[in-house]
Every structure is written in structure tokens, then in C-alpha cells.
């Protein structure tokens, strides 16, 4: 998935196969929750390259806000959690190919994605922001027209930047984006505001930023395969309960430093 068109085309094609494959077995599709309970484990996918939401720790464990949220949801519906890391640009394809059971990786809910997957949530809200080094002179969208703009491959920001006609360079994840900006190989990066601010501060990088004035804040959701209403309802119920009883807030404060719903 290297641009918006290819993402939509690939997702829709794979989605049509998935839906057609389930059409003759609709009663079974609604029982995916029962199948997971029989196995006793849910496999949740993320990039592992999006700190502090999901990243690989010094002890080689995938940790962060996303794994904690996914693990707590699974615990409440009686499941253990297995975390799978995979490249972001192919993550929806992997879900539709049954390589894992859900994506808990800070995925922005969009109409295109909702055509091929169902979403639980949103489980937090953020917005698009543009980051540059101090003194860059980049302070508006117009200033991006003649500079190199870094984005993560397969994210909604990539499609947005290409639609704008910017000179786009794609990378595997946020850590790589930050290094490219710090080393001057790109002039600006586009990312979800919360994750980038926290990662920049964690690394001690100085930066300037502004929020995209044309895009409203957006929600991140948990993606699951379509035609699984029981699984979706159980996961949403668990998420809602977490938000009501204080568990969500505790997880958010541990990994993000504040409530971000």
C-alpha cells in the first residue's frame, strides 16, 4: 500500500473476498467469539514501532498503551493475549487473511477502512500535526509545498500528504521518522499529535509544530473482521466498562501521562 488508491483498491478487493467467503456461512461468522473462547487466546496486531502506544522494550517485549488496552479487553471477555507485530502498510490485509484476530495499533477510523473491517471504539482521540526543527520557517501548510515531508507508510497521513502534492518520503514507523527529521533528511514530518509530541520529548529533541487546520480530531479504533457482531459487542462492552470504572484512565496515565479519550 503505497498510496491512497492502492490502499483502497487492495482493501476493497480483499474485503470482497472475505465477505463473499463468509456469505454462505453467515451463521458461523457470528460465532467467532465462541471460537476464540475455545482457543482461549486472541491474537492482536500492531506495528511495534509507535511509541508510547506500542513499541519493543529493552527486554524485547511489545509494550505500551495499545497492548495494555487490548490485554485488558481480552481479560474481561475471558481471553489471553498474543501480540503480533507486522508492517503497518499490510496490517489490514493480514487481518482479512486471518493472521490475527484484531488490530489494536492506534488505527484511525476512516470510511474507507470501515468498508472492509468493523471498528470497536474509538478508544482515544488525537489529531494531525506537522513537526519541524526550530528555525525551519515551516508554520503553515503552504510552507510544506517546497520541502521534504516524512510520513509513515500506509498511514492516513501518507494519503493526505500525497493528495496535497507534497514531496513525500515514507518510513516504517515513528522512531525512524523522528531520526530522519533530527538528522535533516526530511524538513517536516506529519503524524498523530499525541504520539509524536511524547516521542520527541522522550528523545530530548527540540521541535516546532502546528496542528493541521483543515482536519478535525479523529478517533483510533480496534479493527476486527466484519460479520462478527457478538465479538464486536463483547469487546465494546469491555472497553466501555474500562472507561467507566477507572481502568482506562489508569492505563492512559501510565503510558501517555493523561486521559486521552
UniProtKB/TrEMBL annotation:
Pfam families the UniProt entry points to: SBP_bac_3
The keyword Zinc is assigned to this record: no
Domain of life: Bacteria
Signal peptide from the UniProt entry: 1-25
Alphabetical keyword list: Signal
InterPro entries in UniProt: Iontro_rcpt_C, Solute-binding_3/MltF_N, TAT_signal
Domain Ionotropic glutamate receptor C-terminal: 42-258
Domain Solute-binding protein family 3/N-terminal: 41-259
GO cellular component term of the entry, any: membrane
GO molecular function: ligand-gated monoatomic ion channel activity
Protein name (Swiss-Prot/TrEMBL): Amino acid ABC transporter substrate-binding protein, PAAT family (TC 3.A.1.3.-)
The organism's taxonomic lineage, starting at the top: Bacteria, Pseudomonadati, Pseudomonadota, Alphaproteobacteria, Rhodobacterales
Amino acid at each position: 500500500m503505497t498510496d491512497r488508491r492502492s490502499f483502497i483498491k487492495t482493501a476493497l478487493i480483499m474485503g470482497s473476498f472475505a465477505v463473499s467467503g463468509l456469505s454462505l456461512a453467515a451463521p458461523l461468522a457470528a460465532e467467532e467469539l465462541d471460537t476464540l473462547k475455545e482457543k482461549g487466546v486472541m491474537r492482536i496486531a500492531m506495528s511495534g514501532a509507535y511509541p508510547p502506544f506500542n513499541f519493543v522494550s529493552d527486554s524485547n517485549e511489545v509494550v505500551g498503551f495499545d497492548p495494555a488496552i487490548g490485554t485488558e479487553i481480552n481479560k474481561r471477555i475471558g481471553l489471553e493475549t498474543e501480540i503480533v507485530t507486522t508492517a503497518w502498510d499490510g496490517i489490514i490485509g493480514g487481518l482479512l487473511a486471518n493472521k490475527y484476530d484484531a488490530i489494536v495499533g492506534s488505527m484511525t477510523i476512516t470510511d474507507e477502512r470501515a468498508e472492509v473491517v468493523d471498528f470497536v471504539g474509538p478508544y482515544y482521540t488525537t489529531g494531525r500535526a506537522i513537526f519541524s526543527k526550530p528555525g525551519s520557517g515551516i508554520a503553515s501548510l503552504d510552507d510544506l509545498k517546497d520541502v521534504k515531508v516524512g510520513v509513515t507508510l500506509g498511514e492516513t497521513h501518507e494519503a493526505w500528504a500525497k493528495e496535497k502534492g507534497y514531496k513525500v518520503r515514507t518510513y516504517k514507523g515513528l522512531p525512524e521518522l523522528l531520526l530522519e527529521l533530527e538528522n535533516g533528511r526530511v524538513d517536516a514530518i506529519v503524524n498523530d499529535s499525541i504520539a509524536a509530541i511524547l516521542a520527541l520529548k522522550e528523545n530530548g529533541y527540540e521541535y516546532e509544530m502546528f496542528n493541521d487546520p483543515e482536519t478535525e480530531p479523529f478517533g483510533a479504533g480496534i479493527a476486527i473482521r466484519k460479520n462478527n457482531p457478538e465479538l464486536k459487542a463483547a469487546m465494546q462492552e469491555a472497553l466501555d466498562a474500562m472507561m467507566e470504572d477507572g481502568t482506562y484512565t489508569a492505563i492512559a496515565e501510565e503510558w501517555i501521562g493523561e486521559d486521552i479519550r
